[in-house]
Predict the structure.
Amino acid sequence: MAYLDDDDGVPASLIFRRGYSYTYNDLILHPGLINFPADAVDLSTRLSRNIHLAVPCVASPMDTVSEAAMAVAMAALGAVAVVHCNTEAHIQAAIVRAAKARRLPFVSSVPIFSLASAPSLADFAGHDYALVTERGDSLSKLLGVAVAADATNPSAPLSDYMRPAPRSASSSFDFEQASAFLADENLDYAPLLSEEGEAIDLITTKDVERIRSYPKLGKPSLGADGKFIVAASIGTREDDKRRLEQLVQAGANAIVIDSSQGNSTYQIDMIKYAKKMFPQVDVIGGNVVTIAQAQNLIASGVDGLRVGMGSGSICTTQEVCAVGRGQATAVYKVASYANDQNVPVIADGGISFSGHIVKALALGASTVMMGSFLAGSHETPGAYEYKDGHRVKKYRGMGSLEAMTKGSDARYLGDTLKLKVAQGVVGTVADKGSVLRLIPYTMQAVKQGFQDLGASSLQSAHDLLRADALRMEVRTGAAQVEGGIHGLMSYEKKPF
Ligand SMILES: NC(=O)C1=CN([C@@H]2O[C@H](COP(=O)(O)OP(=O)(O)OC[C@H]3O[C@@H](n4cnc5c(N)ncnc54)[C@H](O)[C@@H]3O)[C@@H](O)[C@H]2O)C=CC1
Ligand SMILES: O=c1[nH]c(=O)c2[nH+]cn([C@@H]3O[C@H](COP(=O)(O)O)[C@@H](O)[C@H]3O)c2[nH]1
Ligand SMILES: [K+]
């Protein structure tokens, strides 16, 4: 019989009672009993009432994070991305459609030309091949392929050297089917065509080798339509109703209503409208950090809640507006209410490493939403640049001046509000490689954390939390220093 000491750690229900706003770093979770291997930990979860995921990770709706490439990679991994709305509605819908047209874990971004064009080698943008279609864009009839090595004379029209397309693969092929197709047909590359014969993409043996170098893909996130699950964000303005309709037509499985303070009549009206018009699509509301806010949105019919205000790495909301909450407290409080209402919680922002994910999930979240953690990966929009010898990509807050003047102008500056005040910054993050590698390694670390807790699944972690069996403590400043790397002259931190 285990020796029980009331003070041998305290349950969350006591920790979060004292009028402090705690963040992940303030807390340390206590170990439980290990009686299963780390590989046996089941991290499967729900994004929202009706959307099941094998991997509890969500890519933020930000224009330096989530477009088609992130959406297909995350869905192929068993996770999900929320396509941002900082662009015209028809472009956002086209991104959702492009992601849902694929079953491969990547978007190759091969150039697509029309027969009348005369591309230069530079127009191939480093690709060995390009597709030639009737209209010169995707979702148009495939005419043939262009090979970069043939583009020696920039004034020569493509019709002079276009090659007939080799046998095409179906865009509904997953990675294993597509790589088997290339091998069986003995091809170096193959166009991917939709059932209607439209050009979707192109796969090469180089792509196959690259994907094979990553950890094996698990169970993908697939909707009832058999296609990748893709979510998309909208705002709460009148014209967001038209955006919503276009996104639903494009096949979006979930709609995230994107706001820093979700407890508004604007959002409540939009939730009701969306649920009435498209009851088959899950609506995720937010952001909220208190039970009172959550109550309003749940009463309005949301299927999921996004939690976090000012906790993001690029967020200045707490500095600018003085409003928000420590992320650990916010997640615990909102989840303790929402989980009772069968509404899953997304812990949004402030995830810097795998331990933060363990803490967010152990405190009641069903998924974590990440911006900076995924920023700088191959799958994010934007090009790499070099800064002080480091390969970096831009990452910016959606409330930064730069992002606001790009697309969300109407949202911030329209109507009566004419003075721009930023609630976010623009920065850079290091190259993270592919999320197809980053997420599996990170999830392995999260499984090891769950094993340490003695929780063999996300459900079991939530059960331990509710039963007050999960113990934890607040760390002093010195304990936090002790928990990090210290006392070394120099070191190299290589996580995997
Ligand atoms: N999670 C966080 O801590 C934060 C996130 N952000 C991100 O920045 C972006 C923008 O967030 P917000 O500025 O909160 O966007 P928002 O669209 O909720 O609010 C912008 C402004 O428009 C007003 N507004 C919204 N709907 C309206 C309507 N129908 N009629 C009249 N006025 C209306 C709002 O009250 C607010 O003043 C999002 O991507 C959000 O996720 C920004 C700050 C903090
Ligand atoms: O105060 C803010 N100003 C902004 O400009 C901004 N842009 C994004 N977000 C929120 O931050 C989350 C991503 O946070 P991380 O980089 O820490 O993952 C995202 O998922 C958002 O919730 C913002 N918050
Ligand atoms: K912050």
About this structure: The longest strand covers residues 282-288.
